Amino acid sequence: MTYYIAPYRMARRWAQLADTQPDYDFSLPVDVREEEDAYVIHALVPGLKAEDLNIQILDDVVTLEGEFKADESEYLVRELPHGSFRRSLRMPAALDAGKAEAKIDDGVLTLRLVKAESARPRTIKVAAK
Question: How far apart are CA 110 and CA 113, in angstroms?
Answer without folding.
Answer: 10
